[in-house]
Amino acid sequence: MNERLSEKNRSHPFKLPSKEKSFVSYNFLDALFKVMDQIDYRALPAQSSQGIMKIAFQNWLSFFASMKDYRKHPGKYKGKPNVPGYAHSKVKEVVFSNQDCVIKEQKYLKLPKTKLQLNIGKLGCTGGQLKQVRVVPSHGRYVVEMVFSYPIEKKEAAKENALAIDLGIENLATIVTTTGSKPMLVKGKMIKAMNQYYNKMKAHYIGILRQGKKPCEGTHTSSRLERLHLKRHHRIKDLFHKVSRHIVKMAVEQQIGTIVIG
User: Fold this and answer.
1) Segment 132-156, tens digit of pLDDT
2) Cα–Cα nearest to 105, from 128, 127, 123, 124
3) What are the backbone angles phi and psi of residue 113, rounded to the nearest 5°?
């Protein structure tokens, strides 16, 4: 027993890069940043920093794998794989785990690194377990997204009953089923009208903003443009959710087990 414990607690030294493996491991980077007390690494909770590092590490692994395959089979690619680039945006999505965030009094979301609490209302009373919190920059503001886990309630449906959806522009969706119900059309005129108004107003605001300026001069966005983007996003998202909910409801009522989109 003592031998097993000693083997478990024994340190495992990191290996230096070699020709076979020309880059350091994720564990080495994580340990190095902790020892260095790296400012950016310590600015976020440990799990969030580790998650960001894992994504960057995976991007580099994919690049090296692509380069290795590119040298052997260049005909499979349209061009040479590019090195992972830096994020040019000043704001970036941040992901917190349920170890960093907690819901207090079934009403307030406590975020790490601050004493402020976010009032989430009825969302705190849900029976699900909080798994993840995402802070996403969107159209000049930040959106807090919470991911909960719920037990799945399985319902039996006949797999031989199918529903086919053909997506388009004039008709947003053409729906046909094998259960004998009448085909259904979802008109796309409302979406087209939204996009036409959006493109017209966007061109108008950009024309005012960029008047008399060279391509590299001045700003390329404004508060009016951000409000326009956000309004279009909300209206289209609302419409798509209503359409998808209606389709799923129809499939459940007719006990359809297969949905085909194409």
Assistant:
1) 999 998 888 889 999 999 888 777 7
2) 124
3) 65, 15
